[in-house]
Amino acid sequence: MPILIPAVALQLCVGILYMWGVFQPHVVRHFGWDFQVVARTSSLMLFAFVAGTLAGGFLLDRLGTRPVVTLGSLVFSAGILATSFLGGGEPRLIHLTYGLIAGTGTGLVYGGVVSCVQRWYPRRRGFAAGVAAGAFGFSVVLLSPIAEALIGAVGLPRTFRILGTVFLAVTLAASRFVTDPPEPAVPAGGAAGNSGTSGTAGGHPAEARQYRPREVLASPVFWCVFLSLFLEVAAWVVILPVIKTMALARGMSRELALAAVMVTGIANASGRILSAWVSDRIGRTRTVIALCLVTCGASVWLVGAVGIPYVIAVFLVAFAYGGPSGIFPPLVREVFGQKHAGTNFGMVLMALGLSSLVFSRISGALSAGAAATGDYSASFYMTAALGAAAAVFMLAAEKLWTANGGR
Fold first, then answer.
1. 21: Cβ–Cβ under 8 A, 6 or more apart, which residues?
2. Beta-carbon neighbour count of residue 376 at 10 Å?
3. Which end of the chain is more exposed for a tag (fewer CB within 10 A), N or C?
């Protein structure tokens, strides 16, 4: 438990990146910038988050957890603080500060923390990854009302300044206590495989082979897993920057619109924890397939939902998005081995970054003018179809892995 306390503290801070739906209307209003230009911050921050996770994985394999998490804390806090000093002018400055700089720092912290806690709990990897990832998602619930209250009291720039200062202090302090486990705590060979068989596809021993990143890229299993994640998260990519805006456009109250944003934190966190727990029992791939189907149904529901049904549909999208965050880290370790797990997981997570860039632009083209009307039906029909395709790719990954004898 001691390692989970600083891990959770770090994740709660860097999880503010998912609060862009709260900040975006205030940013548009404060600076007078174009809504569509500002909305791109969301896709850029997700891409930078993934790039930071990939870079962090590379560094983790060489430097260890504490240096990477400390670096990430500094970069993340610098991005938030730099955002507080924007004075208008070019809107792409916020793409740089909040999107790229803070996003990269978040990826460094997130990847380091999730990798570390799994190694401390080798027999409960799904649980450990779920708790760390769940705290990341729960940040929205904790910080959304605080951010709204601060913006109302001191304005947007000072809110970013206060939050950035607090985050700097908390993350640097917590980073000192995030350490790698001693060597005996890192499982090797058959012992590790026995601890993870309940979660692997087909019940084959985990970590039978230590794949290098080049070997991973040559594996059909990797590309099926990659494409499954790329398609499954599209619904979240589409809805994240417009949750509050879409609710208001559909005639809902500001209170209900804010509740829809806050509920994503609960859904995101619970999806990460519960899905990871379930995957320890019924298998990683089967759990991901179930989440893909949830994405399909929720996307169709979002086409015309208003009021409480809208909040429920948003909850389901966020739950299905959060789930893979608790499942894919142990899945990557069990399929491709532990030795290069940091880098290998970062490569899989690049699917999230690419999805954020691709589908945010496609949605913008399909639903032009939807910010005023709340009609994103074309985008949500698209994400429903993508969710079904994601389930097919994950099923293919399981079949390939089983056919190769788990190697």
1. 240, 241, 242, 243, 244, 245, 261, 264
2. 24
3. N
Say what the pTM is.
0.70
Task: For residue 34, give the H/E element and its range.
Answer: none
Label residue 4 exposed, middle or buried (CB < 10 Å: 0-12, 13-18, 19+).
middle
Is the predicted pLDDT of residue 342 greater than 80, yes or no? no
**Cβ neighbours for 121, distance < 8 A, ≥ 6 positions apart:** 127, 128
| Look-up of token digits 């760390």 | 132
**Residue ranges of domains in the chain, CATH in brackets:** 4-183+211-399 (1.20.1250.20)
Please, are residues 125 and 330 in contact by the beta-carbon 8 Å criterion? yes
Residue 75, amino acid: V
Which residue, among 389, 37, 333, has the nearest Cα to 208 in the 3D structure?
333
Instruction: For 180, list phi and psi in degrees, rounded to 5.
Output: -75, 150
**Residue with structure tokens 């609960």?**
266
Q: How far apart are CA 287 and CA 300, in angstroms?
A: 21
| Residue partners of 392: CB distance under 8 A and separation at least 6 | none
Euclidean distance between CA atoms 369 and 237, whole angstroms? 18
What would the pLDDT profile of 46-58 be if each residue is shown by its tens digit?
888 888 888 888 8
pLDDT of residue 26 exceeding 70: yes
Average confidence score pLDDT of the chain: 83
321 compared with 204, residue with greater pLDDT: 321
DSSP state letters, 173-228: HHHTT--PPPGGGS--HHHHHHHHGGGSGGGPPTTSS---HHHHHT-HHHHHHHHH
What's the sign of the alpha-carbon dihedral 396, 399, 403, 406? positive
For residue 325, is pLDDT > 80? Answer: no
The type of residue at 265 is G
> What is the rounded CA–CA span in Å between residue 398 and residue 301?
29
Contact at 8 Å (CB) between 117 and 191? no
Rounded to the nearest 5 degrees, what angle is found at the Cα of 1, between the Cα atoms of 9 and 11? 20
Integer Cα distance of 295 and 321 in angstroms: 8
Helix, strand, or coil here: 292?
Answer: helix
Give the length of the chain: 407
Q: 310, 303, 313: which is closest to 377 by C-alpha?
A: 303
